[in-house]
User: Which sequence fits this backbone?
């Protein structure tokens, strides 16, 4: 099996955009082709597009061929869109990884993409019911904010986690996004402001929640031999993990323990031949502040129930045990569902290439990216390593 | 790289069903688990679901985890839905193939699935605009029937193809579907009936068009070593091909020549180390009668423009040059977008296992499956070989 490396990255501006789905893809695609200067488009033989809700929010299925046409590429090996709600983008990366590892593809473009802001935002809100089980939960008003509010309430009840600790996640991630020109929210926020932002679903306030964001992100993958011809700093995909259990809230073993995350992390690290302590930075799925706190625990960085303490001690900040979400996370960058997982990989690669502002520069050799979806029943993990 | 084999198949009844998306998946899943009797569900480590339009027609994204929950499986290796309009199901098969070939997965379930009939069928019709380019073509009324009507008109103009020749495709495929209890249209039709069925978009009549069908199909894949423990007749995936060009009608080089199909066929056969003349049967994408006629030509079975003659001579029937669409094709079985590509593979496997009625039994060793999508700009091919 061939080694697989990320050799290029591209981002467009994230936010409430007037751009269409295809235009968002074009921006990130242009940035990518600028990054891998001189690559003829006809050498890109595969395209995998991660996108969760295009049929509802852009009235468009058949997303991958339209992105191909927009980018001016004609895939001759592998072409598809992947959908796995908030893990859609990472799924596209995994498919592209496999295409190159098997030799079916030599150069694959991975595009994460979502157009979420629509002229009628009630359409967007209603559509969010269909990234959970719409028949059983969505119709009862269960979308992500009330679900994660229950998770937060339960974590507070079981472990004494506080709203202040949750707010610290938002403050940290916004401090990072303030230096990220692609972020939806490139502005610092104070503890006071997070705690006094409007209540969305108690105990979650507005600034505990990631935004409804339009955006795209792209990476280019190739095999080990070709990678070094295309960049001085190939970043290898060393580990992949994925695990899911039943999605219905009633079927979950626990709200505050995510065994499928532990499984996905364990498998990805094992495949990479590394431990969590080898990591230099991590991009975690902070769809809500409470998510990041539980993720510290499931990564094994903090004991169960001590995730709140972990942020309080600054352990997830630069200089702490493991810097987390240096691009600004979903809280600071916004969360265009299909784009998020790809943008996390972009951040790790740009960190390793020292392409990020000094205020959030970490660098290093190992990075881990994590996404979750649905009722946190499904988790995906990618482990990356800087080559030379 | 590991060899990959199909070791089990499952189908539900196709048609206008009152079943929900999840219930359709459950039926095909049950049939699959019955076929691989004794397989503990926890051994299925991956699930790939091909589905094109669930967000619009079932108001449900996050399709793969919901199918997993419905089937009682908890994937620990690979989980995603693939979307590529009418090639969605075949795309899922390809992803599962790669997962097993790389060793990331040991046993993967592939589910093709579509719920197309809705209480308000105008919603279904409108949604069909989003499997083409909705912004540029869908809004102008360009959905599949008018597009393929233009293709048919042009083929008639350029090569003298007749409506009678097109009708013969429908007659043949309905003769096969008449023996297929899972088909939406299990009934023979006469030439006269096809030619006098209501006009949909001239020259295409109703019986020149595949139906709007609810349905699901499933196959189980594993690696070469495990395959022989699970079945006496593993069917190996030997070749994969895929090629796409720009989707807009205005950007297509030709309406009647499909160079991306030739490319996909060539690549899949090359990978398999076979030629089209080695094939014992083929499942082609007869979304409209004219499609199958052009496909004869692009497969190299007939000279360009002589596809009409090919069906007239009975060369695509049992006893002819290459029996095509023995399950009844899209014309006879209906076309639940995501399910079609998987059901084609089911047919080839069941043929090799002599699990089909004698009236349509061909058997043999080699089979080819083909799907197209959009404005026939994208084609995917899978080549299968019976193992022993």
Assistant:
């Amino acid at each position: 099996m061939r080694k697989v490396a990320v050799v290029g990255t591209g981002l467009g501006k994230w936010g409430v955009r007037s751009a269409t789905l295809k235009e968002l893809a074009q921006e990130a695609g242009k940035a990518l082709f600028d990054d891998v200067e001189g690559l003829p488009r006809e050498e890109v033989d595969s395209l995998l597009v991660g996108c969760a809700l295009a049929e509802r929010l852009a009235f468009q299925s058949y997303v991958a061929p339209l992105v191909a046409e927009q980018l001016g590429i004609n895939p001759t090996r592998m072409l598809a869109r992947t959908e796995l709600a908030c893990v859609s983008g990472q799924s596209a990366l995994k498919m592209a990884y496999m295409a190159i590892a098997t030799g079916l593809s030599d150069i694959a473009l991975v595009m994460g993409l979502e157009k979420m802001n629509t002229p009628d935002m009630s359409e967007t809100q209603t559509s969010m019911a269909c990234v959970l089980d719409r028949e059983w939960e969505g119709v009862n008003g269960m979308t992500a904010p009330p679900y994660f509010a229950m998770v937060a309430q339960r974590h507070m009840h079981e472990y004494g986690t506080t709203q202040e600790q949750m707010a610290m996640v938002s403050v940290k991630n916004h401090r990072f996004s303030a230096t990220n020109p692609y972020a939806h929210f490139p502005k610092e926020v104070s503890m006071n402001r997070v705690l006094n932002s409007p209540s969305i679903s108690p105990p979650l306030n507005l600034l505990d929640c990631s935004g409804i964001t339009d955006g795209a992100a792209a990476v280019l993958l190739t095999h080990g031999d070709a990678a070094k011809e295309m960049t001085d700093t190939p970043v290898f995909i060393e580990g992949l993990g994925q695990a899911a259990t039943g999605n219905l809230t009633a079927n979950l073993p626990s709200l505050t323990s995510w065994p499928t995350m532990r499984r996905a992390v364990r498998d990805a690290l094992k495949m990479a031949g590394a431990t969590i302590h080898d990591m230099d930075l991590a991009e975690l799925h902070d769809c809500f502040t409470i998510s990041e706190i539980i993720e510290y625990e499931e990564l094994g960085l903090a004991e169960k129930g001590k995730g709140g303490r972990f942020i309080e001690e600054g352990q997830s900040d630069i200089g702490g045990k493991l810097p987390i979400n240096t691009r600004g996370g979903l809280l600071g960058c916004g969360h265009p569902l299909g784009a998020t997982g790809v943008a996390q990989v972009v951040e790790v690669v740009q960190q390793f290439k020292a392409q990020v502002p000094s205020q959030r520069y970490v660098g290093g050799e190992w990075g881990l990216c994590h996404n979750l979806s649905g009722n946190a029943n499904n988790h995906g993990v990618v482990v990356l390593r800087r080559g030379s």
Chain A has a mean pLDDT of 97. The two ends of chain A are 20 Å apart (CA to CA). The domain at 4-120+213-235 of chain A is CATH 3.40.47.10 (Peroxisomal Thiolase; Chain A, domain 1).
